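Re: that chain you flagged

S.,

Sorry for the slow reply, it's been a week of failed gels. I finally had a moment to sit down with the sequence you sent. For the record, here it is as I used it:
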Amino acid sequence: MNINRRSVIKYFVLISAGTIFLPSCKNDNKKNSAAFKNIPIDEDQQATLAEIAETIIPATDTPGAKEVSAHIFALQMLNDCYDQNDRDKFIKGMKQFEDNVEKKYKKTFTECSVSEREAIVAAANSQMDKEDDDTFFFKTLKQLTVRAYTNSKYYLTNVEVYRLVPGKYISSKAV
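Prediction finished late last night. Pasting the structure tokens below so you have them in one place:
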């Protein structure tokens, strides 16, 4: 078998490239979301946030918070607009929230029934005046969920229809 130098180099480059990309093919169940570089959050935590948001604004004959991606909006706002101290408080509070649910119900929030989720959110709502990380997490998530929902395309085209006020803008400098 006659192998020339060009073929050897070509195979060497292909094998080298394959070993470089091999780690990215590894299936990691708790993969961190690359979309939020300032928040260390995995897919399971995103699912939990989606379910909490859905419990805050549930789907009825109208879409719920999960359908308008309110949890993604909340994470994007935290990632882009909040300072690192608040992001850390949010993540710490989310872990405390998850731990509290685990202790009380012996399962995760996403595994809880709808009535259990409603009870958890009602309990969190009743403690909004506290100053701990758990409350900061819930209060921030709730505020951002409501903001996301009321600024969603669905809400602004079907519920509170935005109407442009006719008129002409007059600058105060021109007067």
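What I noticed first: The chain has a mean pLDDT of 83.

Talk soon,
D.
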